[in-house]
Specification:
CATH architecture of the largest domain: Distorted Sandwich
Structural class: alpha+beta
Number of domains: 3
Oligomer: single chain
Bound molecules: zinc ion
Number of strands: 43
Number of helices: 12
Strand content: 25-35%
Radius of gyration: 26 Å
Shape: globular
């Protein structure tokens, strides 16, 4: 009967526009939140349970409804022994909306626990033209003593399986031992007997903090969670009685909340897509760019071409850097980064006077005089045991140490350590006129169970992520907002949708060569926009079209060559290739990424962008050690009746064809020798 009432009520509501809005029906306590693309319906039932009623894709008609015998609620949180979920009755205390930037709406629903031990505020957000619901919970402790939030579920979604079979899709992140494969995409068909598919995400975890699910009819959901510490996420299908269930929990959570204090869960989001994994990725990326991610420094000139001093490892000095800066500026490098080795020691963040007799600021000034930005390495979670900070404060270390270049690890959620580090970051920026911070280290979220620190000893994962790393970075960024940050962490092992909020790019390989670079981009550009797939090109790659082609698609292209050792011909070739990168980066940055053929040592691979705003496509085709001098490339996403001009970076051929001709018959890409590449440009005519 209740469902009939809801359906009747739904039919009399005017169709929603594309603008975000929330409609509250006080007679039924029903909220309908949406924007003309997504519509999510929630209800505080007459018996006091807060329920998810339906999530609909208004463009495709796809529906996600709770299983009839399995009510579901976005409220999933535990404090002490009190569980707040679908079986906990509440009273509606208040409800109101706020507009949020950019172009969004936030609905607050304030619920009072019937036992008056807690107040739970459900926070729901929608944004114009995004098929995504973003949400969080705020818990308020109404008891007279401290409470400990010890369990949350950031993906509190259970839906009827509609008798379908499902596939789940994840992407590995970079890991120290390359096992499992760095940025390898993983598709798994769900076992209807309930075996969960797991995502182990966060700093030092195995996978990116993202998950997509779809059925055989291309009805799909994607989800991300905005937390940099370790999270275990699962999705499973229980074929009888018939539901799919997500779960995502912050590991080892034990967050103290004082009386009348609040705890807000990390935000997460659930999005709709209809199509393949490329479409899931594209919808995620557009949402990330529109709502979450720190904006690119300048969309026209980002991602940058940069140079990094690691060609010399820590054997750097003023003269070496200045001579490389001359060549870097001449080939078109925009950002010049001084990597590890500039300081007296890790944690002693003053320049080494033996290496920089005129001060590091002299190098910075020289780099600026050449028209480049100046970047600096900062391993903020580490300090050498002999450094003054640890000599004076030996207890500032975390219990777990990662041994980063002989340093000890610091506990950033210990307030005195945090305060010192914030002051160091601000001073470094000011003293050396820094435009760019290369944040590095081994695992940015440390384990620390010390009872002598200001955090709860049993809340390390949450505390070192939110009150540690995030608090330090956001304080420095608030004080010096014009400095852009890069997430490095060796090779990119904190690939989360919280990371994108503070950093403008993230490394996805560790100078591991051409093939690894392409594999990193191939995997990382499912969840993340191309600008978050930064690659370091080592000098050992050599300088030929195979090497440079391996860096043409994706986020910052970081040269790690000793530029002063290049021949004039090599310098000329590099300058020309940097020009090619710059000519196509803006179009790729906003495009949908099509993953055509994955890279392999003995294969040919292809990755393509299609930018609907310009109606242009760009594809990088690379032949590794494979047979066959040619490859038929069939582009995707073109407008069938549109005429396109097709031209290549290397092959002089030019074609004029329609989108449908190109998509059906393809174009031949000439790859005459192993280890070669070409770029296909398909331009709106
Ligand atoms: Zn600690």
């Amino acid at each position: 009967m209740r469902n009939a009432v809801i359906l009747l009520w739904m039919t009399v509501v005017a169709p929603l526009s594309f603008g975000a809005q929330s409609i509250f029906d006080p007679s039924q306590n029903i909220w309908t939140i949406g924007n003309g693309w997504i519509r999510a319906v929630f209800q505080l039932s007459p018996d006091g349970y807060f329920l998810t009623r339906q999530i609909s894709d208004l463009q495709s008609g796809d529906q996600w409804t709770p299983s009839p015998n399995r009510p579901t609620s976005p409220v999933r949180l535990q404090a002490g022994t009190d569980v707040f979920d679908v079986q906990r009755p509440f009273l509606l205390l208040d409800q109101y909306t706020q507009t949020v930037n950019p172009s969004g709406l936030r609905q607050y629903i304030v619920l009072q626990d019937l036992n008056s031990v807690a107040q739970i505020t459900v926070i729901l957000e929608v944004y114009d033209n995004q098929p995504v619901l973003r949400y969080s919970l705020r818990y308020r402790n109404l008891t007279a003593s401290p409470a400990y939030v010890n369990w949350i579920n950031m993906l509190p979604w259970t839906f009827d399986d509609a008798g379908q079979s499902y596939a789940a899709f994840r992407v590995n992140q970079w890991s120290v031992d390359s096992t499992p494969g760095d940025f390898e995409p993983l598709q798994t068909v769900l076992d209807p007997s309930g075996t969960p598919v797991e995502v182990d995400s966060g700093a030092g975890g195995q996978q990116c903090g993202w998950l997509a699910l779809r059925d055989a009819n291309m009805r799909g959901l994607f989800a991300g969670w905005e937390f940099d510490g370790r999270v275990k996420t699962t999705v499973r299908q229980v074929g009888s009685p018939g539901y799919v269930q997500f779960s995502s929990t912050v590991l080892d959570l034990n967050h103290p909340v004082p009386p009348v204090g609040d705890f807000q869960t990390p935000y997460a989001f659930l999005g709709l897509f209809h199509g393949d994994w490329d479409e899931a990725g594209y919808r995620t990326q557009r949402f990330s760019e529109a709502v979450l991610a720190k904006p690119a420094p300048d969309p026209k000139t980002f991602p940058y071409v940069s140079w990094d001093s690691w060609a010399y490892e820590d054997q750097i000095d003023e003269q070496t850097l200045m001579r490389n800066a001359d060549v870097a500026a001449s080939v078109g490098v925009e950002l010049f980064i001084v990597d590890l080795g500039w300081a007296r020691a890790i944690g002693d963040w003053y320049e080494d006077p033996a290496k920089f007799p005129d001060g590091l600021s002299a190098v910075s000034a020289y780099v600026h005089s050449l028209g480049m930005k100046f970047g600096l390495h900062f391993a903020l979670t580490e300090a050498d045991p002999a450094s003054p900070v640890l000599q004076a404060n030996p207890d500032w270390t975390s219990t777990e140490s990662d041994g980063y270049f002989g340093a000890s690890s610091l506990c950033l959620s210990n307030q005195p350590t945090r305060d010192w580090l914030i002051q160091q970051g601000i001073r470094i920026i000011d003293q050396y006129n820094v435009d760019w911070i290369l944040q590095d280290g081994q695992n940015m979220v440390k384990q620390c169970t010390k009872t002598t620190h200001t955090h709860d000893p049993n809340d390390s994962n949450y505390a070192n992520a939110v009150d540690g790393l995030n608090a330090v970075v956001s304080a420095i960024q608030a004080a010096r907002p014009n400095v852009n940050w890069e997430n490095c962490e060796n090779g990119g092992s904190m690939m989360t949708f919280n990371m994108v909020k503070s950093y403008v790019t993230s490394i996805t390989n560790d100078a591991s060569g051409s093939l690894a670079s392409r594999q990193a981009v191939y995997g990382a550009t499912y969840p993340f926009p191309p600008r978050f797939a930064e690659r370091y090109m080592p000098g050992s790659d050599g300088l030929d079209l195979y090497a440079t082609g391996s860096y043409m698609f994706g986020g910052n292209w970081v040269l790690m060559n000793s530029l002063v050792d290049l021949t004039p011909d090599q310098v000329g070739f590099l300058a020309q290739q940097i020009g090619v990168y710059k000519s196509q980066r803006a179009d790729i940055a906003e495009a949908k990424v099509y993953h055509i053929l994955p890279p392999a040592a003995d294969g040919t691979d292809a990755i393509q962008s299609y930018n609907p705003a310009t109606d242009n496509a760009t594809a990088v085709i690379t032949r590794a050690n494979s047979d066959g001098p040619g490859y038929i490339f069939r582009p995707q996403g073109l407008v069938p009746d549109q005429q396109y001009v097709v031209w290549f970076a290397n092959d002089p051929s030019i074609y004029l064809q329609t989108g449908s001709q190109l998509m059906q018959s393809g174009v031949r890409v000439q790859l005459p020798t192993p280890y070669s590449s070409d770029i296909v440009h398909i331009q709106h005519q």
